[in-house]
Design brief:
By secondary structure, this protein is α/β, with parallel strands linked by helices. The chain has 2 domains: 251 residues, Aldehyde Dehydrogenase, Chain A, domain 1; 181 residues, 3-Layer(aba) Sandwich (Aldehyde Dehydrogenase, Chain A, domain 2). The protein is 38% helix and 21% strand. It contains 14 helices and 20 strands. Helix 2 runs antiparallel to helix 4, helix 2 crosses helix 6 and helix 3 crosses helix 4. 50% of the residues are buried. The mean pLDDT is 97. The structure holds ligand TXE. Ligand TXE binds next to helix 7 and helix 8.
Length: 454
């Protein structure tokens, strides 16, 4: 096996850099250093950990432009999105910097003594990150894990390691202890699997495909190791006939074509009530044609290329035999470009069931509220979704009935780090973000102190 892999710019198909492929021994070394660093970190004063995380956040803030430019180069994200992502990492760090001083246990009334609980860190946490949002998804794991007193070993995706590597450097530059947060590059089968099998990694956080996530969970089960899974999605954008159709249609492209559809929350099925189906498609067409696909370095660009040539082939395969209603545009030439497509589909079509992870949206009609809910729930996934209606009662009923972890009414809300995020069904296990995420990186210890005189 080669000791390096080549990172490619997806907008030009040109190589950018060679990155080391860690061996098993190198992974084990990083874990051993993490074990040592964690002991000192967990033993330090809560305020010291809070200050260290705030210093890390400031270092990220000071390098937002550099991180954003790296993401444009490595992932083809439009510069506006990439700046948002880099700033988001700093915000996530700042938010969880409050956690060390707030991880309070309980005092539980008992006879003959005092009973208290402690939130003990796991020790070393292994975080496995996909290529679609390299910085943000990494931070959702490492910020609360560090805040709770753990050390972190982080494996970025082979395709997109550059921002994670830079974040690892910035942590050290900001004064975080050596070994506490280590970015280990390499393959999933070596580095990722070692996080699963190594006895000193006490929790794993995995974001990626449902297939690999299931294997990771099975491996963690064999080692009795807790695991958080953020997996695929086939989220529904449900448009009722009483909705503000203009707004629903104007916002629909952003909800699925953002990041070229390579978003676990992409609203990749638009379910439209039959009575407004034709009108909605009329309104959607100009919005899709106006969607700006091109050079990610330009401020005006809304969508860049797909991540790789092989991923482009996978996305293209979904269009075999599909009924394309209309499409947007994309540049010609080098780079892994793919135009946005709107496809008319039936509920059992592959396009209506499987995650495309590209700029292809399936539109399906439904008859009434019950039919819309049935269709929304008619996939193995349950991550996100949007509901468009002016009827308050319906908004409440439908948002309770759709089996998804993150829903939005009359908008397509993006992730807010201070609110919980996580999927149901095949979209995941356990949650991330929100007020309780640091606690997810601890286990509760209960201690009884006898007070009765002997
Ligand atoms: O994901 P993988 P890939 C979906 C999406 C996409 C498909 C494939 O449909 O087209 O998955 O993407 C590491 N043990 N999503 O191939 O393979 C791997 O190195 C431990 C949806 O990138 O799941 C990478 O760091 N780790 C999703 C990470 O797991 C292993 C986001 C994800 O890789 C491993 C990404 C193993 N055996 C892809 N094999 C979403 N919905 O957000 C691989 N890895």
């Amino acid at each position: 096996m080669s000791a390096t892999f080549t990172v490619i710019n997806p907008a030009t198909a040109q190589p950018i850099r060679e990155i080391g492929r860690a061996s098993l021994d190198e992974v084990d070394d990083a874990i051993a250093r993490a074990v040592r660093a964690q002991r000192a970190w967990a033993g330090s004063a809560p305020v010291a950990r809070a200050d260290a995380l705030r210093a890390f956040a400031r270092a990220v803030e000071d390098h937002v432009e550099e991180l954003a430019q790296l993401e444009v180069l490595n992932s083809g994200h439009p510069i506006g999105s990439a700046r948002w992502e880099a700033a988001h990492v700093a915000q996530v760090l700042n938010f969880y910097a409050g956690a060390p001083e707030r991880l309070s246990g309980q005092q539980i009334p008992v006879a003959g003594g005092l009973d208290v609980t402690f939130h003990e860190p796991y020790g070393v946490v292994g975080i496995i990150v996909p290529w679609n949002f390299p910085m943000t998804i990494a931070s959702w794991g490492f910020a609360p894990a560090l805040a709770a007193g753990n050390a972190v070993v982080l494996k970025p995706a082979e395709l997109t390691p550059l921002t994670a590597l830079r974040l690892g450097e910035l942590a050290l530059e900001a004064g975080m202890p050596e070994g506490l947060f280590t970015v280990v590059t390499g393959s999933g089968s070596v580095v990722g699997q070692r996080f699963v099998s190594h006895p000193d990694v006490r929790k794993v956080v995995f974001t990626g495909s449902t297939g690999v996530g299931t294997d990771v969970a099975a491996g963690c089960a064999r080692n009795l190791k807790p695991v958080t899974l953020e997996l695929g999605g086939k989220s529904a954008n449900i448009v009722f006939d009483d909705a503000d159709l203009e707004l629903a249609a104007a916002s629909a492209p952003g909800a699925v074509f953002d990041n070229a559809g390579q978003d676990c929350c992409a609203r990749s099925r638009i379910l439209v009530q039959r009575s407004v189906y034709d009108r909605f498609l009329e309104l959607l067409e100009p919005a899709v044609r106006d969607w700006q696909v091109g050079d990610p370095a330009l401020e005006s660009t809304q969508m860049g290329p797909l991540i790789s040539a092989s991923h482009r082939s996978t996305v293209a395969s979904f269009l075999d035999g599909a009924d394309v209603a209309f499409r947007g545009s994309a540049p010609e030439g080098d780079g892994f470009w793919f135009a946005p497509h709107v496809v008319l589909a039936s509920p059992q079509d592959r396009l209506a069931q499987e995650e495309v992870f590209g700029p292809v949206v399936a539109v399906l009609p439904f008859d009434d509220e019950a039919d819309g809910i049935r269709l929304a729930n008619d996939t193995i996934y349950g991550l996100a979704g949007s509901i468009w209606t002016e009827n308050l009662g319906r908004a409440v009923r439908v948002s309770r009935a759709v089996k998804s972890g993150v829903l939005s009414v009359n908008s397509h809300s993006s992730v807010r780090y201070w609110t919980p995020f996580g999927g149901m069904k095949a979209s995941g296990l356990g949650g991330e973000l929100g007020p309780d995420a640091a606690e997810h990186f601890t286990e509760t210890k209960n201690v009884f102190f006898a007070t009765d005189a002997p």
